[in-house]
Every structure is written in structure tokens, then in C-alpha cells.
Amino acid sequence: MATNGTAHGKIGLALGGGAARGWAHIGVIRALQSVGIVPDIIAGTSIGAVVGGCFAAGHLDHLERFARELTVRRVFGYLDFNFAGTGLISGQKLCQRLEHDLGDRSIESLPIRFTSVATEIGTGHEVWLSRGPLVTAMRASYALPGIFRPVKIDNRWLFDGALVNPIPVTVCRALGARYVIAVNLNNDSCTRGTVMPHLDTFPHPPEADADLDLEEVPKGRGTAAMKRLLQRQFFGRDDSPGISTVMVEAFNIVQDRISRSRLAGDPPDAMISPRIGGIGLFDFHRADELIKAGEAAARREIEYLRHEIEARRNQRQLVPQPTW
Length: 324
Hints:
Elements: E1 10-15, H1 24-34, E2 41-45, H2 47-56, H3 60-68, H4 72-77, E3 87-89, H5 92-102, E4 113-120, E5 126-129, H6 134-142, E6 146-148, E7 151-153, E8 156-160, H7 169-174, E9 177-183, H8 222-235, E10 236-237, E11 240-241, H9 243-265, E12 270-272, H10 287-314
Helix pairs in contact: 1-10, 2-3, 2-6, 5-6
């Protein structure tokens, strides 16, 4: 018997951002489904919006199959570099894949209430996308600044919602959820941070450090050589991080600090935190282990979740009777 909904309200599932680590959301949802815990409301940020939207649309199987089939080569094939725009990657190839699986589905037509979280450029407003094309709402939520091109919706330019609400517990509550399960993908990837004031003890950088060493340019001509160069610059090498690593890791630190602050102010009723700190934010090809980690994390909390949900289901509000 499904346990969605309680005596006092509905179950909300808040899926946080975390780039490739978001495949763990699939495992979490699978584990919850296996014991009949089905959310009535889903709010997703960034990759959480992608997984949550696909689940709400009944296409989680398609997304899981796509994720498990990814290899390093295929991941790089989806990166359509765009040096003339507002992001290194246009995101058109990913959009086409989502549209192929989801079509022109609107958020209003989904059987499960769904909201995607994005950030408005300029104002910093937190934007909740609860209607309109599902794929467009997903794209806006995962448009990582500097990496993916921002998305224009209703004359607003939007990008990654993790800048304002990395784990959207507040969205679930605003939509009527009384019991919120949150999934934090970055709990073990960032520490609380410390201060390292003795910078004079660190080795000094070389006086001159060119952005691109011409001797490192891959040999050969044409498209193949350029792809190798872009791959090296984007992903980095063993001895130095690439553009994506620098930007995403910086974004990850900011996201972690914002998450801690917002969760302290509005904590979820239950938190699921997959142990995936050793997996990189661009390791999309490691879906198998990420899904397993998400499932294992959810199963560690299953008994607590079932007990809490059942307890709330059985609660009955006592109404004082008049004494006269």
C-alpha cells in the first residue's frame, strides 16, 4: 500500500543540486518507491529538477537508462561548446535529448505536482517554475553560470537555482507538503571550512604562467585536434584543474554554504545524504555507483521514514469538548 499523504497533509520530496551526483536521486526514488513511499509534491533544483521532473512525468526509466549508458566519450559528445554566447556550452544537445523523451509536456499536465527552482540574472530573485513547458523549466534550473547558456522565460533570464535555494525544502512546504524529505548531494563533499592565515608558508607561484602552453597543444590538424585541446582545457589534467573544475567547484562551495544556512532556518522532516563525496561533479559516466549510493542512503532511513509517516497518518487532533 502506498504511503503518500498523511493525516495532516502531503509528502514533499526536495531534490538538491549537485551536477553528476544527481544520478543518486534516481536510487533514492527507487528505494522510496519499493516501500510504497510516493511523494505528492516534488521540488527540484538543478540536476534535482531534471530527475524530479522526469519522475513526475513518468519517465524515470528513460532517464535511468540514459544515465547508465553514458561513457566519458558520450558525455563529451553532449558538450556543444559555444564561445560566442553567454556560456561555454549551449546545451542544445541535452535539450534535444530531453525533448525526445518528454516531448512538449507541460508542468500542469503532470500527475505529481512539480516545481523547478531557478535564479533570475540581475535581481537574484528565486523563481519557482510551476507551469509551462517542462523541459524549459529543467533547462533554466540547471543552467550553471558560465557553463550553460541561461534560459529566457517571460522576459526573464534565468540560470541555476542552486544559487538561491540548493535544496528546495521551502518550496515543498509552500506547495502544501507537511512532511518533507530532502536529498542533500553535497553533505560529505565540503567541510565546514576553516581559516588558513599563514599564506607566507605556501610556495610562491612562478612569475609567469601562461594560460595556454603552446607546447601542450595536441598534435594534428582539424576538428580532432581542437576537440582534444578543448577537452584538456575544459576538464583539466592530473596536475592542474580545467575550466569546468574551477567554476563548478567554486559554485559547489557557495552552494554548500547556502544549503547549510537555509536548512538551518527551515529543516526538512527527514534528510537523505548519499555518501558520494569522492565522485566528481562531472563524473556523469559513473551512474551505476551513484544510483547504488542513493539507494543505499535511502534504505538507511527507510525504517525512520515509515515510522514517522505512519505515526502522522494515525494522529487524530483532539478537540476539547465544552464542559457546560
